[in-house]
Structure formats: C-alpha cells, structure tokens
Write a structure and sequence with these properties.
The structure holds two protein chains of two kinds. Chain A contains eleven helices and ten strands. By secondary structure, chain A is of the alpha+beta class. Chain B is α/β, with parallel strands linked by helices. The chains are: A alpha+beta, B alpha/beta.
C-alpha cells in the first residue's frame, strides 16, 4: 500500500511524539505501574485520542489507516501505552460515535478526545473471553435505572479510566441471551476494582478485575438498543484486531531496528556480527516478516475505510502479526546474545510486551475459528 | 500583525548525507524536511500571533524540485500560507543569492516582523538572516531568546554568553531566533489535514523579477573548492581521581563554557 503524504506525516508526528515524550520515561512508568494522565492529555493534543472521531466532537476525523499507523508508532516505544490508546479510541470512542445518542456523544466524546476522560472496555469475565454471548454480568431494569451485578476480568485501565463501556445480559439467559452495552462513569459506588494484576508485559498500564455490586446506572447510559449489544461488542473487537496487529508490528519493528543497530556495532571474529551471514540472514527474515504483517494490517484498515467487510482480513492480520512479533522479538534477543536477556536492553521489554498480542482481542485460536468459518468467502 | 518566517527545507539529518562530487554541494534530490532550527522561528511566530490575539504567520522558502514537505510541517503547526521559490537557476546559490531570493519573496508580503533561525542545520553559514535584512533595508536583531511586540516596536532579549541584552528597534524588522528558546509544538493531526488545503504559492525567478546573474551558481561569490574528510575523533582524556577529579571536570566544562 502506498501511503499518502498525510499518512506519512501522521506517522512521522506519532513517531516523534513517542520518541520524545514516551521513550525517555518508559522504565520509570513501568516501575510505577502506569503513566501520568498528563501523558494522555498530551497525546490528545496531538490527536492520538479520538483519531477517527468527527472533529465537531473534538476528534481528528481521520481514517482507520491513519489510526493504525499511529498505533504502530506508539507501540514501537511502549505496548502498554498503545493499549491504553487502543481502548480509548476503539472500542470506547468509536462505539459511542457509532451507536450513541446525540446526548451521549456530546457528553462523552469531547472529553475522551481531549484526554480529560479515559475509557475502559468491560467484556471479558473470569470464565468468558471472546465468547461474548456467555457472559454472566446482569443488568436488571429498575424504574429509570439498571442495576448491574457481575465480575469482569482483564480490564485495561480498570482502575484509571473515567468511563466504562460495560457488556451485560439484560434479557433471559438462555441459549441466545439478550446482551446490552452501557457507557457510564466509573465514579459509582457500585463500581469496585477488586484487584490490579501483576503481569509479564504492558507494565505501563493497569489491568484489573472489577466487580459491579448492585451498581445503579441511569437508563440513559444504555448504548444502542436494549438487547442489541452483542453486535456492538463484537464490532469493537473486529476493529480492535486491526489495532492489535499494528501494535504487534510496532513492537517487532523496534526489535528489528535495535537488532540491526546492535549487529552493526557488536564485533566477533574481527568484524561486526552483521557481517556474518547467519546474523544478516536472521535480520533479513525479521524484516520480511515485519513488512508482511504491516501490509496485512494496512490492507484490513483500508478495507474498513472503504466500507467493506474487514473482519476476516482483521483476524488474519492479527493472527499473523501477533505470532510474528513473538518470533521476531525472540530472534532479536538471539542477535543480542546474553545482552538481550538483560533489562538493560529494550529487546527484553519488547519480548515481554508482544506476547499478549496473541491473546487479547481474541486469541490466535479464536482468529483461526473466524478465518476458517469464512474460508468460502475468500478469493483463493 | 503579520509575521513572516524563513523556512529552510533540508535533507533529513538522520539519513547519511551525500555530496555532489561535481559541485561539492549537498545532494537535495530526495524528500526534504523542515530544518529543526527553523521550527523555533515558526513556534515563536505562532506564539506572538496567539499572544496578540490575532494576526497571521506566513512562510517563505527556497527549495529545489518544488519541494513542499517541510513547508507542510510548518503549515500543520499553524502557519497560514507559504511562498515557495523553486527554479533550476537557483542551484548553487550562496548565502547572498539565497538572501536576495528570500527578500524578494518577503517583500511581496509586507510583514511587520520577519523571523529566521540563527543558522541552518546543513549549511551553517549563519549569515542569511542578516543579509535578508540588508537587502530589505530593515533593522536586524540576532540571537533572540524572547520577543515582544509593543505597537511599532519590537523588544528582544538578545542572548549573550553572559546572559542577555535588552534590544529594541522599530518594525518592520528581522529577528533571528536562537534554537531551543521555545518548545516547538507537534503538528496536530487536525493541523496536518488542514495544511493540505492551505495555499502554497510557487514562484520562479521571473515571477520575483530577479535576474539569473544575481543568484544561483552564476551569481555566487563563494565556491567550495575542496572537501576533506574529517579527522577521526581522538580518544578522550582519562582523569584518574586523586581526590580532585571533580575540580578537573568542572575546569573542563568551564573551558567549553558549559558551566
């Protein structure tokens, strides 16, 4: 895909921002378990939040290709912050922009686009992930309110977000339960963070378990129609897979760059190790894999921008890019030798950060289910 | 208030540069970017206009091949419009030739203030801004760290080794802005998309009414006669700490005028 001058400029600005505003602080934020809110407000000022949202709500009104390109740049420097950016943009802001009432858009979008409020997406439960129809969190109508009870797990920004997009069962819980989505502030006494997880990577954000304990939510916080929330939840996941593929490419690309630099400096047997064919070929393989994955996510994003079905392309991009990122990060450590095993070198962090891309927004196995179900529609 | 900023578009310093062996000039065939030293001038201009509650920031640039990539970056930061002078006859221009071209472009805009970086990051002559002022016959103040407009007076804190001097002159004037005195803003994504529609007037020498003999290679009074490889960097001095290492380090930094 040949990018437009504006796409290239957006990529360059995102790269410069990540390099100057995020990279120097990443180790400190990892140790603290999160980045300050001021970072997200600075990201918002550039336009990294609400990227695809209509400018009348404070967004940048860009296409999904732009969003994915920017995501690659932020993820190249830090996976955890790119994940926060992802949650805020899609599903939360895009979900509200697509399914919200005018009042909901006026209330939430300008604050999300300005980084004043951060959003979190509450789908996964301890025993339910991509199988969205099996969730057990319930929302029962009581006058002009719903009362939510349930337990969510693996919630990015669960303790730092200001608004939550919550997926809950509203109808009878039979074979095909009625599922609804709510968008509501987290400063609700019924919203309880019961654990902040310690994790392998993405240590610059908070991943939480959240309990809804008789959490009373005004009926006006229902997003879309009651009982029609499954498509909202799954629609968000599909777009999120393109972003995850871009994140994986970002991490892998950075691992490749660091490996190329290291191999040009590190000498063995009287010459830089990049001069040894085994290392040069490893770098060539890494570069080819990164390039292939980038084309895949850009293709999926451009399908979405063209108004075409991007679900299968998104799953393919996510499947390939996430598994590629682990392979490339592992090779990066191998190129670095013992140094790559140390925290002193960023490839160690990248290796930890990229692993989750094979898990969230649907595991590799779930992507294979999606792709295999759509084999007949592929142009083979 | 109308502020014009001189903007140079240069080869990306992050990429290895290459000299044209026939002219000894830097090759400028690939994409050019906004010279970082000019981004301070752009930011200063935007802050002046924002502080005044209104006004306009325009850009002037001279570049080969109708290159606008660097100009688009400055437009995305918030400048309103730009003039680009591009003409094959400008190849090989020296500092004075460049100043003549930029002065001709600036004079079409009748600005209150002209800002420029102190020196470009590729040529480093550090003389073009003052030559522009000379050609335009307007006052010039160099090394500004702070600028204030008060009616028809421009007040400048002019950076010196010891601190700064307070200097002022009447507008229109040209002021060169020291790198690092303001924090250039990131172009916002909305700014990038808006910049697509901002006008860039492309002019050649005839449109500016300049004679080919006064600019470019034919008008140049300087010539790069020889290029020599830089000496390899020597190993630094190792100071063994015998209780006075800190004094030696402070002395060393003092010689460099860092402390």
């Amino acid at each position: 895909m040949i990018l437009s001058p504006e796409h290239n400029q957006i990529r360059e600005v995102a790269r410069a921002f990540a390099s100057s505003e995020i990279a120097p602080n990443v180790r400190e934020w990892e140790a603290q378990g999160g980045a300050p809110k001021a970072l997200y407000q600075a990201m918002a000022k550039v336009g990294l939040l609400g990227m695809t949202i209509d400018p009348k709500y404070g967004g940048s009104g860009l296409d999904f290709v732009s969003y994915a390109l920017a995501m690659e740049e932020i993820a190249a420097v830090d996976g955890g912050i790119s994940n926060m950016m992802s949650a805020n943009n899609s599903p939360v802001a895009i979900g509200i922009a697509t399914h919200g009432t005018d009042k909901q858009k006026d209330r939430f979008l300008p604050r999300l686009c300005a980084g004043e409020w951060l959003g979190s997406f509450h789908l996964t439960e301890p025993h339910t992930g991509s199988d969205a129809s099996s969730i057990t969190t319930r929302a029962v109508k009581d006058g002009n309110e719903y009362v939510l009870n349930g337990h969510k797990a693996f919630i990015t920004a669960g303790s730092t977000s200001d608004i939550a997009m919550i997926v809950a069962v509203t109808g009878p819980q039979a074979d095909s339960p009625e599922i609804s989505v709510f968008v509501t502030p987290t400063d609700n006494p019924g919203y309880q963070v019961i654990n902040t997880e310690r994790k392998l990577g993405h240590r610059t954000n908070d991943l939480c378990q959240v309990r809804f304990d008789s959490m009373r939510v005004p009926a006006t916080d229902l997003l879309g129609d009651e009982g029609r929330g499954l498509s909202i939840a799954l629609g968000g996941l599909s777009l999120g897979r393109i972003a995850t593929a871009a994140q994986a490419v970002g991490g892998a690309r950075q691992a490749l760059q660091l490996s190329k630099d290291y191999a040009s400096q590190r000498e063995t047997f009287g010459k830089p190790i990049i001069g040894h064919q085994s290392v040069a070929f490893t770098l060539a393989e890494m570069a080819t894999e990164v390039e292939a994955a980038r084309h895949m996510y850009l293709h999926a994003a451009s399908l979405h921008d063209a108004g075409k079905d991007s679900a299968t392309a998104a799953s393919m991009a996510k499947l390939f890019a996430s598994e590629m990122a682990e392979r490339v990060a592992s090779k990066a450590i191998q190129v670095h030798g013992g140094a790559g095993f140390l925290e002193d070198h960023l490839v160690e962090k990248i290796y930890r950060d990229v692993r989750v891309y094979q898990i969230y927004e649907g595991t590799s196995e779930v992507q294979k289910i999606v792709i295999s179900r759509n084999l007949d529609s592929l142009e083979l | 208030m109308k502020v014009v900023v001189c903007v140079k578009q240069i080869p990306d310093p992050a990429l290895p540069g290459e000299l044209d062996p026939s002219t000894n000039y830097l090759k400028r065939d690939d994409k050019l970017i906004l010279d970082e030293s000019d981004s301070y001038g752009v930011e200063m201009a935007l802050q002046l206009v924002e502080g005044a509650g209104g006004g306009e920031v325009s850009l002037v640039s001279m570049a080969p091949n109708n290159e606008v990539s660097g100009l688009r970056t400055a437009l995305a930061m918030g400048a309103e419009d730009a003039i680009l002078v591009s003409d094959n006859a400008l190849a090989g221009s020296d500092a004075l030739g460049t100043a003549r071209v930029l002065a001709a472009a600036i004079s079409r805009l009748s600005p209150d203030l002209v800002l420029a970086g102190v020196e470009s990051s590729d040529g480093y002559t550090g003389t073009v801004p003052e030559m522009i002022a000379g050609v335009l016959d307007i006052p010039s103040i160099t090394f500004a760290k702070q600028i204030e407009i008060d009616g028809n007076t421009v007040k400048v804190q002019r950076q010196t080794e010891a601190g700064y001097d307070d200097v002022e002159c009447q507008t229109p004037a040209l002021v060169s802005v020291t790198a690092g005195v303001v924090e250039p803003r990131y172009p916002s994504f909305k700014g990038i998309m808006a910049a697509k529609k901002k006008p860039v007037e492309e002019l050649d020498l005839s449109a500016l009414g300049l004679d080919e003999s006064s600019v470019g290679q034919s008008g140049a009074r300087q010539e790069t006669v020889r290029v020599t490889e830089a000496e390899e960097r020597q190993a630094g001095e190792v100071i063994e700490d015998e209780g006075d290492a800190h004094e030696k380090i402070v002395e060393f930094l003092g010689e460099l005028k860092i402390v």
